[in-house]
Batch of 2 targets.
Target 1
Amino acid sequence: MTATQISKGNIYYHFKNKEGLFLYLLEEWTRDWAEQFQAKKARFHTVKEQMIALVEHFVMDGFHHPLTKASNEFYATELITSPNQDKIEEMMQMYLRNYEELLEEGMQKGEFKPDDARLLSMILEGMLAGIEFSSNKLAFQEARELYLKAMNVFLYGITGLTEPPAADKPAAN
């Protein structure tokens, strides 16, 4: 109410409850995040550089954003019981689509080996979301280094191998 100079009654006229207002703010933040990243993306020549820029954007936009802590608490406690699960899933799909498009572009340009971009985008989202939950007590610079290290592990692995050894490959059904 203070930030918008709008009365409580007027806010509730537009939103059924606090969760409705919260979801609206998350949707706006998600949309802004995607637009800002798309604008930044053009500054980088390779998809690998764009992937590093993605985590930089993730940290810079989210680390001090007022909705980060609230959304983490919401996802951890309210998501399963929320009547707005479809709306939340739609927002998550936007992130996954962005990641998948980036990965597909990298595969088409030969920067990444051919693979299932959809599955890789889910792995990337899981990694970033997990880091977001586990880095909330870190200082900004530590969190930034963690995200960058994670992206480097995602892009290059930790073994230095380009393919898993035959013994480590999953068996075909």
Target 2
Amino acid sequence: MSVRTPSGDRPMSRRREATRQRLFEAAITLISEQGYDATTVDEIAERAGVAKGTVYYNFGGKSELYTALMEWGVTRLAQTLAEAVPAPDAGVPPRAALAGVLRAGVVFIGAHEALARMLMAEAWRTNRSWYTAVHQIRTEAIGVITALLDDLARDGLVRPDLDTALAGSALFGMVVSVALDWRTLQPERPIEDIHATLAHMADGLVGPPTAPLS
């Protein structure tokens, strides 16, 4: 069975998909360690165990590889957050649903530290050719959180002047920052502590809760 490329232009073989995955993983590790500018195509190919030409065959160059990598990484994060949203008929209160999504973000970043570090270091730079694409994909993850805040606003559970789009972006940034701080400086702390703190921070941002988030 084959899969399609992100553009949907043609099917991608399993072998090529596996090669691209190795290149993504190599690039994530190197860029998270030393930054985009300091990372070369030669290093990515060597770390992935492929010839340098394989990078150009699959992506065209380092910039194109990075664009595809950013889209792949942020899409994975967005899908993780979306999958954490309870079904409408599950009877989960909006605040509890928001708490679950924030926890899912922390868990994802804990499992994909290098990817998260790379996103934090590179995604918000405005002088990159991939900025527009990354910005559009990134809003998918923020959009999951914003939609839940909209539910809270519709039910009158947040302060009426809350800008849910801006608050969603702030919560997204909090999830990434808190999760990386946890994994870097406090890895011995249980995730329940991290989640509880993040939930309290979220409550403070969106307004006095009628019930605890967690």
